[in-house]
Design brief:
Blueprint lengths: L2 H17 L11 H30 L14 E2 L11 E2 H11 L13 E5 L3 H10 L1 H30 L1 H10 L4 H40 L1 E5 L3 H15 L1
Antiparallel strand pairs: 1-2, 3-4
């Protein structure tokens, strides 16, 4: 065998080796095994998702006011709010409505079925209003103004009534009759009294109207839950407790 023949043989062998296709290593074995394994993985993932989702949603349901979930008090959904803002404790909602002095939801403007009672009596409301530091200074200043105005008005009326005869005598010296003199003095007294009454009315009005609005709107709100809301609250409490 010559050297040329040996070289040709080696080239043909190497060419065959290069032409042979390379098969990738089997990862899952056959195609059937791969499909069964992928479907099993998807089922396990789906079961895990369904098992975790309820626990996450249940733990996320809290009272929108106190941001807690107490097992002693059920969560209710008394208005038209949706999502996590729909749930609230009855005691938290009543306390919030009493502090805000309203009977409707400030988010969805739903008016609750409630009973409103006046929180303070008339005398107690006046006493609390005057004791407030911001109102006390205004009341004190108005009382001082009213006292000074009353003193000046009484003094002018007294002088006019006691000096009526003196004014008549002096007017006669000037050629003015007694009737005209008494008419001028009486008109002056009417103007003084009218100015005093109007000023006193404005002072009382500026104090009374703000107090009356506060006193009238300061009420205790007690909600009346419908049977559907109560039933839904019990169902939500069972779902969140499980």
């Amino acid at each position: 065998m010559s050297a040329g023949t040996l070289v040709k043989g080696e080239c043909s062998i190497s060419t065959k080796i290069c032409k042979e296709p390379t098969t990738p290593p089997a990862v899952f074995g056959t195609d059937t095994e791969a499909r069964s394994l992928s479907s099993a993985t998807a089922i396990n993932s789906n079961e895990l998702t369904h098992s975790v989702a309820p626990s996450i949603s249940a733990s996320s349901v809290v009272c929108r006011i106190c941001q807690t979930h107490s097992a002693q008090e059920v969560l209710i959904s008394p208005c038209n709010c949706k999502g996590t803002l729909a749930y609230v404790h009855l005691s938290c909602l009543e306390r919030w409505l009493n502090q805000a002095s309203r009977s409707y939801c400030e988010l969805c403007m739903f008016h609750f079925n409630s009973i409103q009672t006046q929180r303070y009596g008339f005398c107690e409301g006046v006493r609390l209003w005057i004791r407030h530091p911001r109102n006390r200074s205004h009341v004190q200043s108005d009382v001082v103004i009213a006292a000074l105005l009353t003193t000046v008005t009484i003094g002018l009326i007294t002088v006019c009534l006691l000096g009526m005869q003196y004014f008549v005598i002096e007017a006669k010296k000037l050629g003015i009759t007694q009737g005209w003199t008494k008419g001028f003095v009486s008109g002056f007294l009417c103007v003084i009294l009218l100015g005093y009454i109007v000023t006193l009315y404005l002072i009382v009005r500026d104090q009374f109207i703000p107090w009356y609005n506060w006193w009238k709107n300061t009420v205790d709100v007690r909600l009346l839950l419908t049977p559907s809301v109560t039933k839904m609250a019990k169902q939500n409490n069972k779902e969140t407790s499980t």
